[in-house]
Design goal:
heterodimer; A: 6-stranded mixed beta sheet; 6% helix; elongated; B: 40 helices; 0% strand; cell cycle (chain A)
């Protein structure tokens, strides 16, 4: 579970973003092999900017709201956290303010799982994908869609600089009900 | 003019001025085209790591030595078929393999790398037949599992014969030697026996040719052979004195040498002077032998880089800080270095000085030292007796020499026998026995980098990581520049989760030799430990590029691919690893894991079983075999294997846990709980143990206990996936089992 640093959440559901990417060690980035697409983009500021690990490049949409970022995985994956980097100070009216996250098997059956509101965010915005039920720490899905419903200052188009998606690491020892955490177990748990 | 040119070329080669040698030699060949000169030129190229040049100039040559050099170039360029054709021409099936033992060894390697095992074995055996001290051939036999008693009395007899024939020819040439030595290089008397030359080649080849395959098992000879060898010199009470090499030049050079080094008492000076003796012996050979001698000492590309790097960097002081007999180290290293340069005594002092700077050719020195033990021990004892009176004693001393020679040989072979036995057993993964054999070695032999590494490796195979760590650490202390076996050490540290030590090791190895696969394997292990699988993979791929015949690098690539869930590439990597070394059980294990994940349980079981057959002592392998059997629902067999695993290694908690798992799936809950209670004692902070207990209590409907243990498990902060599982199990605690789907 991502730890939300102080100041990130003013009121329930309103996020402001933190300077540092703060992700637990037992999570790993899941979307390297996924297919990313966007609903529209300005030439030169396309979908690649979302994945290039460069906070200076950004995706700029170029169409009607809502602006969509679609992430399709090769198989059903467990996801826990979505993190995006936005910067109000630089992007102002391009900064997203209301974001909806949908999940499903494909474009035909996406269902909204979370809505968040951002208030002048600067930095990484951590959005946990779990529900309150402990059974729902992860969402199990083929596809994720991030929809920017509205921007700050009623801007039409949006800038998003980076998006990362996290899920749990697989157990290095296959077919185990639980992970091993103690040193004694880990030493003997695999051969190399 | 020709002789002058030849002389210059050879002295350049001796002093490692390769470009100068090449230039002069090219002029020589233009002026006096002859096959011998071509051979010299090829040698210059091979020295300078330009195998392709040597290849082109020697193409089509028929003389045995040319064929050998050509085969060598082909081998380095990985043109194995041509190399084979050169050594064993198809239209002359009965032609003798050039250079005897060395040729057979090279041929054996070629056969091994082209997958013709029986032929390979055959040639290695022949090589050992011709030169019983050819350790590298023995090593290959061990790897191919065909080794047996080689360093025995028959071998002793053969070596003795060789030495005697050498010494007789030495006596003949001693006069001429003596006179011509101080002045010129190209000494005329080249009538030493063919076997003598073979020995030189064999000695040199051994060291270099063992390099190409560079697997973990490759020649990792003791780096610090200095102290050991010196004591070795002294152990045989009456060391055989080979035809006394003329002392006066020795004297003079010994003085020079002493001045250069600032000697540390007679031992060193003796050794140093002794060094000159065998060199001079070989100096008198025709230039062919000299050429080939130098050729082999430098044809391993990695070694050359290391040489050029280290020659510049190292100093006497560095040499002296190694081990107790610090200065003796350096002298022993000089031994190796000098031997490989096979220079004449004229250039002794300069060579010696330049060679003093050389250090850390780990495997080189042992080879040469071992070999020299017999040959140089004679000169050793010669020196204290009054150097300048040697020549007089020579004549009458010959008979007495023989008996000392015999005992010296026997002693040497005894040492090789022990080492050989230990190595053979560890190749067969009979690690416990191997350890016992290594313990029989003398203190000074044991405390050498190679032996300590081997011992560490044996412990690793037995899954005794703490002991392995200890021995590898000692090995590093004794010889900090050894790279052989350090990849295994990095894996040991990986398993022990010693991230600091591991990253320190990796950094050190990279700084020693950026072009060694072991260093990059260690680096990769470092990143792998921190779960940065992409970077780890990149590092392992680098290791593979540096040496595609290094099986472990392939296996580690495979592991990283699997961690990244790219099973296809993982399987490919494991298979490449097995192509290099069929007995690399880690690769079999890796394949088993992939199939286990893909739920192809029969394949998984088959592969784990293969791994287990290769290394039957590993409790981890047994555990996984049991897990595969359990997945196949062969629970009785699974439990049996688990029992074996538990008894094989008391420190390994995993088989106990797996046993409990299997028992609980068989609904033998009480037994399962008993096992888990035991585990609780030895691993009290393992959340999975409590979680499993909670699960069992839940099945037994003992809800309070279940809650208690689930709570304990959660307190230990397991990863999020487990937290989710446990929490949902807790929620469903009061629901009947039929509604339960995952737990």
């Amino acid at each position: 579970m991502a730890t939300e640093s102080d100041g990130e959440e003013d009121t329930a559901g309103k996020l402001t973003g933190s300077r540092h990417l703060d992700v637990d060690d037992d999570l790993r980035e899941m979307a390297k092999k996924a297919a990313w697409s966007v609903s529209s983009c300005k030439p030169g500021n396309g979908v690649l900017a979302l994945r290039d690990d460069n906070l200076d490049t950004y995706w700029q949409s170029d169409g009607a709201q809502p602006h969509l970022v679609n992430i399709q995985f090769q198989k059903k994956v467990k996801l826990q956290l979505l993190v995006l980097y936005v910067d109000f100070n630089v992007d102002e009216s391009y900064t997203p303010s209301k974001i909806s996250i949908r999940a499903g098997d494909g474009f035909h059956n996406l269902k909204e799982i979370k809505t968040v509101e951002l208030v002048k965010p600067v930095g990484w915005v951590h959005i946990p994908l779990s529900g309150t039920d402990p059974r729902e720490t992860f969402i199990h899905t083929f596809m994720l869609q991030l929809a920017v419903l509205s921007n700050h200052l009623n801007g039409r188009d949006t800038h998003v600089r980076q998006i990362k998606i996290y899920g749990p690491r697989p157990n290095p020892v296959p077919h185990q009900p639980f992970h091993f955490i103690s040193k004694e177990f880990i030493t003997y748990s695999t051969l190399r | 003019m020709e002789t002058l040119m030849v002389d210059r070329v050879q002295s350049s080669l001796r002093l490692f001025m390769n470009r100068n040698a090449i230039f002069l030699c090219e002029r020589l060949c233009a002026e006096f085209p002859s096959e011998l000169n071509l051979q010299l030129l090829a040698t210059c190229y091979l020295r300078n790591n330009q195998a392709y040049c040597a290849y082109h100039i020697l193409k089509g040559s028929k003389m045995p030595q040319s064929r050998y050099l050509f085969a060598m170039s082909c081998f380095q360029m990985n043109l194995l078929r041509e190399a084979e054709a050169a050594l064993c021409p198809a239209n002359e099936p009965n032609a003798e393999v050039p250079n005897g033992a060395a040729g057979h060894y090279l041929l054996g390697l070629i056969y091994r790398y082209t997958g013709r095992r029986t032929c390979a074995v055959d040639h290695f055996v022949q090589a050992l037949g011709i030169d019983p001290l050819l350790w590298a051939a023995y090593e290959e036999l061990c790897i191919l599992e065909e080794a047996s008693e080689y360093f025995n009395d028959a071998a002793a007899f053969r070596v003795q014969q060789q030495q005697l024939s050498e010494s007789s020819s030495q006596n003949l040439t001693i006069g001429t030697e003596y006179q011509s030595l101080p002045s010129s290089m190209a000494l005329g008397s080249g009538d030493t026996s063919p076997r003598h030359s073979k020995q030189l080649h064999a000695n040199n080849t051994r060291e270099t040719l063992s390099h190409p395959h560079g697997t973990v098992m490759a020649a990792g000879h003791p780096t610090i052979s200095g102290p050991s060898n010196i004591s070795q010199y002294y152990t045989p009470p009456a060391v055989a004195q080979l035809s006394g090499v003329a002392p006066p030049p020795l004297c003079r050079n010994a003085h020079l040498y002493l001045n250069a080094i600032g000697g540390d008492g007679s031992t060193k000076s003796n050794v140093n002077a002794a060094i000159q003796a065998p060199r001079r012996k070989f100096v008198d050979e025709g230039k062919l032998r000299k050429v080939s001698g130098r050729l082999f000492s430098d044809s391993g590309p990695r070694r050359s880089t290391r040489l050029s790097g280290e020659a510049a960097a190292n100093t006497n002081s560095n040499a002296s800080q190694l081990g107790g007999n610090g200065t003796n180290h350096s002298s022993a290293k000089y031994l190796g270095g000098l031997y490989s340069s096979s220079s004449s005594s004229k250039t002794n002092s300069t060579v010696l000085r330049s060679v003093t700077l050389r250090r850390g050719q780990p495997w080189a020195n042992e080879n040469f030292d071992e070999d020299n033990t017999v040959t140089t021990s004679s000169s050793m004892s010669a020196l204290p007796d009054g150097k300048c009176l040697e020549q007089d004693k020579m004549g009458c001393g010959i008979l007495a020499h023989d008996s000392r020679l015999t005992s010296g040989i026997r002693e040497f072979l005894g040492l090789l026998r022990t080492l050989g036995e230990g190595y053979r057993l560890s190749c067969l993964y009979r690690s416990q026995e191997a350890l016992e054999v290594y313990l029989r070695l003398s203190q000074h032999q044991f405390n050498t980098g190679w032996v300590l590494s081997q011992v560490g490796k044996a412990h690793f195979e037995l899954v005794d990581y703490f002991e392995a760590d200890r021995f590898f650490d000692l090995a590093r202390r004794v010889s900090p520049y050894t790279l052989e076996g350090m990849d295994i050490y990095s894996t040991v540290l990986y398993h022990l989760k010693e991230e600091m030590k591991l990253s320190y090791l990796a950094q050190e190895l990279i700084s020693v030799d950026r072009l060694s696969p072991q260093a990059w394997c260690a680096m990769g292990n470092c990143y792998g430990r921190q779960n940065d699988h992409e970077t780890a993979l990149k590092n392992f791929q680098r290791a593979v590029h540096l040496d595609p015949r290094f099986a472990y690098a392939h296996t580690l690539c495979g592991h990283e691919y699997v961690a990244l869930e790219d099973f296809e590439n993982g399987i490919k990597c494991y298979q490449s690893s097995l192509q290099v070394d069929e007995r690399h059980y880690n690769a079999w294990y890796g394949l088993g894991i992939v199939y286990l994940r893909q739920e192809k349980f029969e394949f998984a079981e088959h592969h784990f079983r293969k791994a287990f057959h290769i290394n039957p002592r590993s409790s981890v392998l047994m555990c996984y075999l049991g897990m595969a059997l359990h997945s196949l629902k062969r629970d009785e067999d699974a439990l049996e294997v688990m029992e074996k695993a538990i008894s094989a290694d008391k420190k390994n908690p995993l088989p106990v846990y797996q046993k409990a798992n299997i028992l609980s799936s068989l609904e033998r809950f009480d037994e399962a709980l008993k096992e888990l209670e035991q585990l609780k004692e030895c691993a009290p902070r393992e959340s999975s143990v409590y979680a499993l207990m909670g699960k069992i209590y839940k099945r037994l409907n003992m809800h309070e206990k279940a809650m208690f243990y689930f709570g304990l498990a959660l307190d230990l902060k397991p990863p999020a996936a487990d937290v989710a599982t446990i929490k949902s199990a807790m929620e469903k605690l009061y629901l009947p089992d039929e509604l339960e789907d995952t737990l």
